[in-house]
Amino acid sequence: MTVEVRPASEFEDVRALLGPKSPQANVCWCLSYRIPSKLNRELRGPARGEHVAELLRSGAPLGVLAYEDGAPVGWAAVAPRADTSFARNRKIPHVDDLPVWSLWCIRVRPGHRGEGLSHALIAGAVEYARAQGAPAVEAYPLDNGDARVDLTMAYPGLRKNFERAGFAHAAETTSVLSGHPRVLMRLDLR
User: Fold this and answer.
1) For labelling, which of 37, 77, 110, 126 has a CA lying 20 to 30 Å from the CA of 27?
2) Residues in domain N-acetyltransferase (predicted)?
């Protein structure tokens, strides 16, 4: 197995990880934290994918994709916090005024889980943010201890995986997802 993580640039590869099976379906497309909530509610069906395609064309940082033997198998969303709803989120605090990047979604295709791809995606997202001049990367993973997490709700990642990647606990949050508290983890890149 050869895994390569690189910045998302090809729409069809992003669609393979984030798009719906049915073009009319209203799936997230990893937009819910990226765009204002009003726009997020207004974009329906194919308009969601079209918005992602436009973001890709604009050169906005979206995230990274993991490729296994040339096929897209994993996704991690990473962008400047100022460009996300985390900039205004009342449940996830700001530690300081540093212009951090946020890493908020990790997705691995079924059939490829348990191969360490989430670790490769975290590392790839950090390297991408570093290359773009990010002074630090924050994540808001679930602090689930040893409790099982529903895979559909594990998208923010798990605290232990971020600790393994060198992130440190920076703050508690009041955000809870699928019954698990979320914590603010940070990796300083300076």
Assistant:
1) 126
2) 1-190
Nearest to 134 by CA among 171, 103, 172: 103
Spatial separation of the C-alpha atoms in residues 121 and 110, rounded to whole Å: 15
DSSP 94-134: --SS---EEEEEEEE-TTSTTSSHHHHHHHHHHHHHHHTT-
Please, are residues 139 and 21 in contact by the beta-carbon 8 Å criterion? no
**Best CA proximity match to 88, nearest among 45, 11, 35:** 35
Q: Could you tell me if 64 and 18 are in contact, meaning their C-beta atoms sit under 8 angstroms apart?
A: no
- In whole angstroms, give the CA distance from residue 108 to residue 94: 28
pLDDT value at 29 more than 80 = yes
Q: Please give the pLDDT value at position 1.
A: 66
Phi, psi of 38 (to 5 degrees): -60, -45
